[in-house]
Amino acid sequence: MTQNPQYQNLRDLVFHAAGNYPSTRFFITDDPGFPHITGAELKTACGKFGAWMEQQYGIGRHIALLGPNGASWLTAYFSVLSSGCVAVPLHLGSTEEDLDYYCDKADVDILLFDETCRSQAEMIHKHNPEIYIYEIHALLEQIRDLDREFFPELLPDFPAALYFTSGTTALSRCVILTHRNMASHTNAAMTVLPLSPEDTGLSILPVSHTFELMTNIVGALHCGGTLYINNSLRHLKKNLQKYQPTIIVCVPLVLQMMQKEILNTAKKEGKLELLQRGLRVSGGLQHLGIDISHLMFKDIYDVVGGKLRYFMCGGASLDKKLIQFYKNLGIEVIQGYGITECTPIVSANLPDANVIGSIGRPLPCCEVRIINGEICVRGDSVSPGYYKDGILNLKAFQNGWFHTGDLGWIDRKGFIHYRGRQKNLIVLANGENVSAEALEEKLTRIDGIEEAVVSEKDGKITAELFTDPGILPDKEACWHVVSHLNRRLPVHQQIGDLILRDHEFEKTVTRKIKRRKVS
Q1: Helix ranges, 230-373 (H)
Q2: Contact 1, 8 (CB under 8 A)
Q3: Is the peptide bond before 194 cis (omega within 30 degrees of 0)?
Q4: Are 361 and 415 spatial neighbours (Cβ–Cβ below 8 Å)?
Q5: Which residue of 21, 67, 256, 359 has the fewest CB atoms within a 10 Å radius of its CB?
Q6: CA 445 – CA 451 distance, rounded (Å)
Q7: Which residues, at least 6 apart from 347, have a Cβ–Cβ distance to it below 8 Å?
Q8: Ramachandran angles phi, psi of 250, nearest 5°
Q9: What mean pLDDT comes out for the span 6-23?
Q10: How far is CA 390 from CA 162, 282, 434, in A?
Q11: 29, 67 in Cβ contact below 8 A?
């Protein structure tokens, strides 16, 4: 195996996988029509797709992809990139209005869709007759009969993909990622992230999102590791035990869900106090350099497959107590920070350099500076800008630095600390600043509060809550627990009003709350 090859584009990664792992099964899924693809088969599919595109439409076309996680979607994605065309991943579950917006904004010429998304694809074609549509399985089967392959030159600064941001606080932006962006990020990430050929991954985030693609997916092809595709979060517990992953890439909500299930199970079995005492003992022993957590919590460890070493977590702010909870159980949480415009990882903690509460040090592909309290980034992994959006580009890209809109600071050892989104910072009439996200973390640690959004309304810090009615059935019960929290907070941070909702907040594909949709 070639050690740490330097890729010029993701097609080089496909060639690397074909050369080093020709018979390895990648992206194992439960799709009977396309259960996996080998390294050699992926390279062949990319070459034949390139020949088909050259013959039918020419290179440079903007090609959207719509479908669930799976080997077929990923084969189509790498085929588009390898053919000199521009991939436009569409988020599964998007509204009809959003899909029309994405296709129009990104100048989509062709849509490749999974059969499960046929109605959406036909709707897109009806609204945009100039967009050609093809079912992914059928097209990949069709091009197998071609007798030639075609791999055009890929210019480093030519767009490889157009990605739409999550749109938590504003409309989704269309981010250009070039071949240079994706290659430099891959080279850096594969050098520092704790991945090896012996690792088994379980893909649980949407592959249409850069975080999943540029960690789990790229990592499997680079290392030759085994990667299973989780078909639904509802099946996560079953699949953890079935596939026994060693690494999981996730967002904070997944860790919160799993923690609540562990605590609720212990509570139902009358073992909650025993578990909490055990966690304290485990943490104390680890502090002394003694780690017997896997023996102490064997039953819990077996529930997550029995082999899990790391959670690689990003996508939102992460509570330090949550990280410590898993560390005491014997599972390291590697927290990082990323944003689509940076392909996406900017910084990450590592197993041998993990500062709990920080978002790690910058990856080798980029440089970070704090400008007026804002995290700013420059480097080869940083997007050249937003597609067809000159005004936004002028605001976000200044003097060679991308302004992330996130607040933070850097400590003396170079670790970055995240303070929250600039747009979510509450500025009170007395000039005091309050981090909405910090309060939301504290609220969701309370038993019974499932989700929380904090904002300023009529001069008061207001918390809108979605609760478990079995624990917190009404506003009076909520005020009882929130009052206890308020007593531990400075006066200017105390919550002054509550709003209860009877359904979950609307979320993005990576399970972040769409704050702009909150009343």
Answers
A1: 236-243, 252-268, 272-287, 293-296, 298-303, 320-329
A2: no
A3: no
A4: yes
A5: 256
A6: 10
A7: 336, 337, 359, 360, 361, 362, 363, 368, 416
A8: -150, 175
A9: 97
A10: 16, 54, 32
A11: no
Amino acid at 252: P
Phi, psi of 401 (to 5 degrees): -110, 135
Cα angle for residues 35, 36, 37 (degrees, 5° grid): 145
What are the two backbone dihedrals, phi and then psi, of residue 435, each rounded to the nearest 5 degrees? -80, 115
How many CB atoms neighbour CB 474 within 10 A? Answer: 10
Burial of 356 (0-12, 13-18, 19+ CB in 10 A): middle
CA–CA separation, 174 and 62 (whole Å): 13
Neighbours of 431 (CB within 10 A): 7
Question: Which of 343, 46, 47, 42 minimizes the C-alpha distance to 178?
Answer: 343
pLDDT band at 37 (very low <50, low <70, confident <90, very high): very high
Contact 285, 279 (CB under 8 A): no
Q: What share of the chain is helix, strand, coil (3-state, %, to 5)?
A: 40, 25, 35
Helix (H) and strand (E) counts in the chain: 18, 26
Say how far residue 84 (Cα) sits from the centre of its chain: 26
Of 192, 131, 159, nearest to 364 by C-alpha is: 192
Residue whose C-alpha is closest to residue 281's, from 264, 269, 270, 296: 296
Tallying the residues shown for the chain, one arrives at 519
pLDDT the model gives residue 3: 58
pLDDT at 2: 42
Q: Tell me the β-bridge partners of 410.
A: 416
Please give the pLDDT value at position 383.
98
- The Cα–Cα gap between 39 and 235 comes to 27
Task: Write the burial class of residue 148 (CB in 10 Å: 0-12 exposed, 13-18 middle, 19+ buried).
Answer: exposed
Preceding peptide of 344 cis, ω within 30°: yes
Q: How confident is the model at residue 425 (pLDDT cuts 50, 70, 90)?
A: confident
CA–CA separation, 456 and 428 (whole Å): 8
Quick check: helix, strand or coil at residue 273? helix
What separation in angstroms does the CA of 53 have from each of 21, 34, 115? Answer: 26, 22, 21
pLDDT tens profile 491-500: 888 999 999 9
180: DSSP letter: H
